[in-house]
Specification:
Blueprint (H helix, E strand, L loop, with lengths): L17 E2 L3 E2 L5 H17 L3 H15 L5 E3 L1 H7 L3 E5 L10 H14 L4 E6 L3 H12 L3 E7 H6 L1 H9 L3 E5 L6 H15 L3 E4 L7 H11 L1 H14 L6 E6 L4 H7 L10 E8 L17 E5 L2 E5 L24 H8 L3 E6 L1 H14 L6 H13 L8 E5 L8 H8 L4
Parallel strand pairs: 4-14, 5-6, 5-8, 6-7, 9-10, 9-14, 10-13
Antiparallel strand pairs: 1-2, 3-4, 11-12
The structure holds pyridoxal-5'-phosphate.
Pyridoxal-5'-phosphate (PLP) binds next to helix 11.
Length: 410
Amino acid sequence: MKIRKGIPVIDQHDKSYMYGGKFGGNFIPETLKKPVEDLTILFEKLRKNKEFLKQRDYYFKNYVGAPTPFIKLNNLTNHLGGAQIWAKVVAEANGGAHKIYNATVHALICKKAGKKYIVGDTGAGYAGKMLSMAAKKFGLKCKIFMGAKDIERQKPNCDAMKKNGAEIVPVHTGSKTLVDAVSECMRYWVSNCDTTHMCVGSTVGPNIFIKICAWSTAQISRELIVQVKKEFGKIPKKMKLINCVGGGSSALGFWNSFMDYNKNQVEMIGVEAGGPKNSKLHAAPLSTNAKVGILHGAAQYVIQDKEGQISNTASISAGLDYPGISPVHCFLKDTKRARYTSATDEEALHSHQLVTKFENISPSLEPSHAFAEAIKIAPKLSKDTVIIVNSCGDAKKDRDILKKRLGKKI
Ligand SMILES: *Cc1c(COP(=O)(O)O)cnc(C)c1O
């Protein structure tokens, strides 16, 4: 299995949409084939269309707020006494996280398709919240499919979706969580695809959704490569790009423009959710050597039991609590272009505390997993090593849990 240079990694699949012959594909029911094919044709046209690219860039700049800052964390660097630590503060984007890139692009595609309705799934509620924001911005009617259990647990996000005019459709089947919400949303889309566009909230699902999402978040590294060259005059000799991974959309966006560099120069490190210390409920398929299975229409490493049933996972960070992972990350793991590890809930809490003690940024619990790895490795590395962490979410959304676990008010 090999990664090729000069070709976007999302396009390195075969005719069956498989990466490395093993991951991805479109394992979907017959009824879903036509809408997926139509969307594929439309997107492949749009991504080459100058007018559409201009529109995307306009809204990324004037709605999302591009470019997001690239800053040096001097105090944290001095405290740890090794590699330089920098942050790409994607949390400064409108809505407080990277999910707005995907939501904005889907809203634009929906308009181009001449559709007035947009549907999406959500687990913790952030994908739903961002999609409801984008729908409001572009005058689209929005439905969000959400597990009944998640609706109970995620009241603030549900309130935000309603405030943006979205309808929340509770899903009562199966485990009443994200996995079921995605299935229900796809069923709805099949029956309504003439008027309705569908958005998947991360780089998972049938291939077209992986592509649209990673193509959207690629904005992060398009900005970063310019910022790095401006700061250092070139790409530093030793650089490490650290990102948390749930479904994998922020990491793929953060790494995209650096993919062709040698891994000895630009190392990519993905940090999964290790869950509570001493528990086995890791939401970490890549770093725990999970087996390949099919989830949401694509083959990937997935947390499963001996019979192949999807297992329960747990993480302090709702955004990372997903049993599967983008097939593109599975490909990057097997080709060894990226390295994957995990951080526990406790490590993420500790790193959140340390970063906020020394710096004026407040990473949410997801990027706190990435900071945990940076904090672990920085002291052992030389001062000319440049570590960049994608601070992809703001801790405002984690207010309640941080208060409960750290007794902290933010
Ligand atoms: C949703 C979310 C994630 C996890 O999703 P990815 O697709 O892996 O990026 C990570 N961080 C934040 C802040 C999120 O909202």
